[in-house]
């Protein structure tokens, strides 16, 4: 059968209605109540003229309203558009216009005022839905453009529809992903492909995908009532994948307004958390710092796993987590907005990230031909199977990323580089766009960052190329140290890195900053790092 995400959620809600679905700011919401609240939001959206196929931008931080907006939109076959709330006005204007959004859901007063200044540049916008009090500046700007402003609170006064339109599984889910250069791109997923790949077919901890809704319902009833904290903001792909995955399992999702390592550690004891989702070292480093500080006062007994996705998670950070709680299961998910969940990395003694053989992942050359296992050739990691349709309104970039071989096989080729061993294991080397060419030798930024993060004085680090007259490029590191750490010198950093890296990979320059800038989801901001390193 073809799966629709709303059908899947409603099936689980009917199967485990009294189980807690969402915990947010000490509020515990059951599946039955969350489904009912989403029905009301769906009715509000419909009453505002939003229907099947319409694109709606969610200019929101984490909240219950963010979740019910997502669910309400997919219930009426509309398309949620994730918005990075830290974008500049120019970037926000691009998202709203490029996505063809007809409506925006917004909350914070400062976000409302920013939106007010963009309405004139967004001709397709016809509705703004405001969570909380409506800002006067937004109200005035909307009135001047004949744009309707609707209070989210009105959802309580709108009667839900008796029945929703039939759903097919061909509905779109558009996920905007930020790159290291240029504006974000909207990845177009069919609901059915989204369920089968990012959500692992409803069975992330097993081998066989769910066959139908009845099987999903039965599995949800049998799944233990586990508590998963999603530390990342819901506008991030890894967080969205996890939200829908855990809802499909009938688990309890714990959300926080913002990532705060202190509150996360306290929630382990208060909410009896069993699994925490982070985004690489950007969240892992402050989290393990807090775990070490609070080890003697916080009961970590319920926590059995920390999972990362969407960014590099270094061996040094993992080892520190295991030192706090040796029985932790650490899972490093490999995936992307353009490929979904590709599986979990393992780490060998040298710190290499290794992906077990999989029929959905290949190593190919520039011409998309398979690279023979056991070869020393470095190639591109290609994902096959359920891949997105392409990038929204961008045929050129779609053709470069979502490619088709002569035999008709469609694949997603993102620029992740690797090599394949004799048994089919793929060793991940890094993203090609972050590859530094120094004197003809290729250095992957992620590998050097992992080595730097293992230094006891380094709180965070990003590695970028800077121009070099003799070598073309040289390896540079932008580093933040812990507050009480001694002054860090280049020679010491180089000696530390030589323990695990070849000589040509060693940073030739460092810049020490107060804080390494990252996105709200903890992803690297390489553009900022390159400017700092060059300066």
In words, what does this structure look like?
- Among the domains are: 31-200, Rossmann fold, CATH 3.40.50.980; 352-434, Luciferase, Domain 3 (Luciferase, domain 3, Roll); 439-534, GMP Synthetase, Chain A, domain 3, CATH 3.30.300.30.
- The longest helix is centred in the first third of the chain and has 17 residues, at 31-47.
- The termini are far apart.
- α1 (5-15) runs antiparallel to α2, α1 (5-15) crosses α8 and α1 crosses α9 (237-249).
- β26 (472-481), α15 and β27 (509-513) form a beta-alpha-beta unit.
- With 535 residues, the chain is an alpha/beta fold.
- The protein is 30% helix and 27% strand.
- The protein has 16 helices and 27 strands.
- Strands 1, 2, 10, 11, 12, 13, 14, 15, 16, 17, 18, 20, 21 and 22 form a 14-stranded mixed β-sheet that branches. Strands 4-3-5-6-7 form a 5-stranded parallel β-sheet, with helices on both faces. Strands 8-9-19 form a 3-stranded antiparallel β-sheet.
